[in-house]
Amino acid sequence: MKRRNFLISAAALTAGVTIMPRLAFAAEGVIDVYFTSDQNVIDFWTNVVKPKFEASNAGITLNLVDGGDGAGVAAIGDRALAALASGTDPQADLFEGFDTRVTVDGIAKGLYVDFEKAGLSNYSKINPLAFDIPTNLPYRGSQVLLAYDTTKLDPASVPKTWADLVTWIKANPGQFIYNRPNKGGSGGNFVRRAIFEANGNDPTKFTVDNFTDALATETLTPAWEILNDLAPSLFEGGAYTSGNTQSLQLLGQSAVTMIPAWSDQALSAIQQGVLPETTGLVQLQDLGLPGGFTKLAVLSNGTNKDAALKLADFLLTEEIQSAVLTELGGFPGVSWDYVSADLRAKFADIIPASIPTFPGGKWETAVNDGWYRAVAPNVDPAS
Amino acid sequence: MTSTEAGALAPAPTQRKRPIGLLLVAVPVLLVLWLIIWPIIAAMIQTIWLPTPDGGRALSVSSYEFFVNDPYSRANLAITLWTTGVCAVLLLLVCLPIALYLRFSNSKIAAYVQGLAIFPMFVPSIILSFAFIRVLGPNGTVDLLLNSVGLPKIKSPYLTPWGPVIGLVWDNIPLTVLILLSGLGNVSNQAIEAARDVGAGRIALLWHIILPRLSNSILVAISFAVLGIFSSFTLPYILGPAAPEMMGPFMQRTFRDLFDPTNAITQAVITFGFCILFGLFYVRSVAKNRTP
Predict the structure, then answer these.
(1) β-bridge pairing A331-332 and A94-96
(2) Would the CB atoms of B133 and A246 count as touching at under 8 Å?
(3) Is the model's pLDDT at A19 over the cut of 60?
(4) Hey, is the C-beta of A105 within 8 angstroms of any chain B C-beta?
(5) Closest C-alpha among B78, B58, B82, B83 to residue B68
(6) What span, in angstroms and rounded, lies between the C-alpha atoms of A71 and A66?
(7) At what angle do helices B261-290 and B62-69 cross, to 10 degrees?
(8) Which residues pair with residue A280 across a beta bridge?
(9) Per residue in A197-232, pLDDT tens?
(10) What is the pLDDT of residue A260?
(11) What is the mean pLDDT of residues A279-285?
């Protein structure tokens, strides 16, 4: 009987906790920051940004919330839009790693702060390559590179061009895996690198505005052929992990020898021991794997809008931008002239002057849908 | 009326209570109408009342036609049905023996078995997924154990359709065991003893005495599990293959990554159509249970 009683009360308790109403109000002086990025970025904010900002701005604290993924924060954005319409408190102030285009009508209704008009003192320092639209504030960059197990692959013979990489993957079946392009940028940018390869390695062919269905078919179809050609030589004959972290886990478990990985995520994984110290990192020399800049959005109806703007400005200072390089393993969002001179000298040889980028918007949709239909099922499109 | 005062008075309070009872029920019913039924109807309308090129809207079933004629979407629906079916069968095979053991065992170990069987309820599926990769994934714990005694590695179910099956079965064990266990409460010890007295063996007991009384609970348990599995998201997303994908990840991807709400809602309505079938099983068995 005791067992059964315990069960009943436990079940009731579980039900009670789930349906308990969650009433929360944004507090004055507490900036609610929602993240789409992975844990290493949140750690960076917890250990570097938060203490430094709070020390120099007495009375303001940061509440860092992991929004899970883009969709998680997009839901908060939708809620904020509803709050804007009803004039209530959105309980959020700043979104990290977020594209304001995602909230339908959000920009048109003025949900997000226009940074061109916000008067940030450091706004002019931002790398001109990083600008997107005025409601997105780029504050850090990152690039995908190849992470590999040096105990299985000699750094001297590691592939350094796309052609070498393809040869290596085919010569070592089952030792390479990349994640689904919509579920994390490491696989996504590997797929985009294949698209560049199929189109003469010319990133300028793709811009946000030049998308047409015909051009997409013309440029993407040969890329799907390249990737389909690789599929049988991938892990398990064409398996794709569902995220950046899962790829790192497979490399860490020594199940594969090489993966594409974000530079910042791979570096912090090595630091924390998630990946062994024997992990090597290499960038392709003919054309690097693409990367991109991570953007912030500030809600115009947030309780702490002014404090959030102060925080956004603070992120662009030399202090934080240098920490992005040293602590996070990412690239600064500001031009290289605005990081400390010794860091500039130290990283000059390692980091390429330009990061190839691939446009978002309709191109992104075409890549995601096309890959799932043409590559993921692992079928021969000709058959 | 006056002669049997006690009998005449008794119905009066129930008459007066009736509107209060209805009022008490009204809140949840209205909430269900507002938060569940209305969104479902709105979604259905949204999928057949589509925008036309000239800016208006017109009745059209083109999104459903697309789903039916698209081999990729059909493959996703097929894998969802396959996963659900396999999980339902496996759940029954795993949970029925556990429930029988817990019902009829008086040993101390039964408490621990029950604890173990209920444990998955308290493990969030995201944690389960990553633990699964650690244990059953390539070079995971199982491989390490096998390797230490000189056996070959297993063929890992990770990123194959069997990955979500194993995860979902484990995740659904507690609910299924609990429902079966409550159903086994209907089987009286006297009935069992009587059958034993006339010489019924274990199989005969199970087949003629226990299962007939349990069939209702089995239906309820399976329809509950199936409803959850059909629209599950986390486990198939993390453990399953990239394609074909189950309806949960497929809908989410269509909505969030392809920015295509019309097709995502169409997929949701189709999923809902299948779930309502399983739901009817549940409603039917509950109704059957009520009428004596």
Answers:
(1) unpaired
(2) yes
(3) no
(4) no
(5) B78
(6) 12
(7) 90
(8) A148
(9) 999 888 888 887 788 999 999 999 999 999 999 999
(10) 95
(11) 86
In which residue are the tokens 């102060």 written?
A310
Domain region containing A329: 30-140+292-347
Mean pLDDT for chain B? 86
Residues sharing a CB contact under 8 Å with residue B283, sequence separation 6 or more, in sequence order:
none
> Which residues from B are below 8 Å from A253, CB to CB?
134, 137-140
Same domain for A258 and A154? yes
A240 reaches B (C-beta below 8 A): yes
Residue A382's pLDDT is what? 42
CA gap B75, B70 in Å, rounded? 9
Averaged pLDDT, B92-101: 93
How many domains does the structure of chain A reveal?
2
Which residues does chain B have within 8 Å of residue A11's beta carbon, measured at their own beta carbons?
Answer: 178
Task: Give the global pTM.
Answer: 0.76
Shared-domain flag, residues A133 and A157: no
By residue count, chain A amounts to 383
Across the A/B interface, how many CB contacts are shorter than 8 Å?
75
Q: Is A180 on the interface with B (CB under 8 A)?
A: yes
Residue among A131, A120, A133 nearest A335 (CA): A131
Structural domains in chain B? 1-60 (no CATH), 70-290 (1.10.3720.10)
Which 3 state secondary structure label does DSSP give A59?
A: coil
